[in-house]
Amino acid sequence: MVPGYTKTNAFESLYFPYTHSLLMGVVWGVVVGGIYWLFKRDNRGALVIALCVLSHWLFDLIVHTADLLLTPFSDYKVGLGLWNHVAITLIIEFAIFFSGTSIYATFTKAKNKVGNWML
Ligand SMILES: [Zn+2]
């Protein structure tokens, strides 16, 4: 934690190659999509899940400062630094949140009222 590291948060990410590198994003996507496929034998669903996992890195690329690795084995780091722009960060973060919520609500169906409130 470094107060003032970015204008919206204090997270200075120093070393997270296995959770936040592009290569490992692909690997985690294949692993999680593969686990889903093993249980459901659903190619389309597995692909969607894999892409959702990978999307974490792509969305992080937009917001992080240049601290995201391409592979755990390289030193080259990327990040577009949106977190240094407060107003744009809030607009985009809320847009992503409400878009995701809307997509989830559109394509799923709660089995009871608790499910609605959990969303
Ligand atoms: Zn992240």
Main sheet record: 2 strands, antiparallel
Give, in spatial order, the strands making up the sheet with the most strands.
1-2
Please, how many helices?
Answer: 4
Helix content: 55-70%
For the CA atoms, what is the radius of gyration?
A: 17 Å
Strand content: under 5%
As for the number of domains, it is 2
Low-pLDDT regions: none
**Count of DSSP strands:** 2
Structural class: mainly alpha
Ligands bound to this protein structure = zinc ion
Quick one: overall form? flat
Order of helices and strands: HHEEHH
Termini separation comes to 31 Å
Average pLDDT, rounded to a whole number, is 93
Could you describe the 3D structure shown?
The chain is mainly alpha-helical and about 120 residues long. The chain has 2 domains: about 1-85, no CATH class; about 85-119. Helix content is about 55%, strand content about 5%. The protein has helices at about 20-40, 45-65, 85-105, 115-119, and strands at about 70, 75-80. It has a two-stranded antiparallel ribbon. It binds zinc ion. Zinc ion binds near residues 20, 56 and 60.
Summarize the SSE layout with pairings.
Blueprint: H1 22-40, H2 43-63, E1 68-69, E2 77-78, H3 86-107, H4 113-118
Antiparallel strand pairs: 1-2
The chain binds zinc ion.
